[in-house]
Write a structure and sequence with these properties.
261 residues; alpha+beta; Dihydrolipoamide Transferase; four-stranded antiparallel beta sheet; elongated
Length: 261
């Protein structure tokens, strides 16, 4: 999943045991320190066994699932062991497909596709198996998918589109009054949740930034007399239990008008 990646966590499986999968199809998600990326099937076959359950963190090159050929059955459950574990003796039946590893793809038949390129190809119905990757080690990147989309667009005939008349603008409805928020009757539930790898990395980077980069702060005094008078006048015009304007509302309004200029 990354050259500097040492471990990853199985976020979730998108396939069930016995489901048919095709090469390049997303079968699960792997959570790294930087993002959650898709895990693609390396070959066509049947999703036969899960070796690592969701939420478990394992080192790179640890087998996490098994895909078998169609009609093939596993002689015995495969243990969650390193890739160097001994394989079953040769039989007349097809050999069990190699386990999937949560690591950077190799050149042994598995498509090397970046997560951005995979999502872009899926959204535009592009077959990744037909593309030639130009990234490092033949990896299919966003540029390769963009070229395929452009080629598909130029070859496909385009039908003339009739102009659509814009719909009439609806009449402005009066702003509804906000109902008062009821206080919660049940006590709030509290608990602890472990940080994900991404959140741990964000916290570590923020701490390093605070410790290694000098920080300085600026203060400014602003006379808000006129703004406070305007706030009082506007609040006096409010009817009933309408919400009152705050100083923050005035600051946001002034910033919005300034940005328009």
């Amino acid at each position: 999943m990354g050259f500097d990646m040492t471990e990853g966590k199985v976020a979730r499986w998108l396939k069930n045991i016995g489901d048919t999968v095709t090469r390049g199809e997303t079968i699960g998600e792997i959570e790294t320190e930087k993002a959650t990326v898709d895990l693609a099937a390396p070959v066509d076959g049947v999703f036969a066994q899960i070796l690592v359950e969701p939420g478990v963190t394992v080192p790179v090159n640890t087998p996490i699932a098994i895909v078998t050929a169609a009609g093939e059955t596993l002689s015995a459950p495969a243990p969650a062991a390193p890739a160097s574990a001994p394989t079953a003796p040769a039989q007349t039946a097809p050999q069990v497909a190699a386990p999937l590893a949560a690591a950077a793809p190799t050149s042994g038949g598995r498509l090397k596709v970046s997560p951005l390129a995979r999502n872009l190809a899926k959204a535009n119905a592009i077959d990744l198996a037909t593309l030639q990757g130009t990234g490092p080690g033949g990896r299919i990147i966003e540029r390769d998918v963009q070229k395929a989309i452009e080629a598909k667009t130029t070859t496909a005939p385009t039908a003339p589109v009739a102009p659509i008349a814009p719909p009439p603008a609806p009449a402005a409805a009066p702003a509804p009054k906000l109902a008062p928020v009821a206080a919660p009757t049940a006590p709030l539930q509290r608990g602890e949740q472990a940080l994900s790898k991404m959140r741990q990395t964000i916290a570590r980077r923020l701490q390093e930034s605070k410790a290694s980069i000098p920080h300085y702060y600026l203060t400014m005094e602003i006379v808000m007399d006129e703004a406070l008078k305007l706030r009082a006048q506007l609040n006096a015009l409010a009817e009933g239990d309408a919400e009152k304007l705050s100083v923050n509302d005035l600051i946001v309004a002034a910033a919005a008008r300034t940005l328009q200029k």
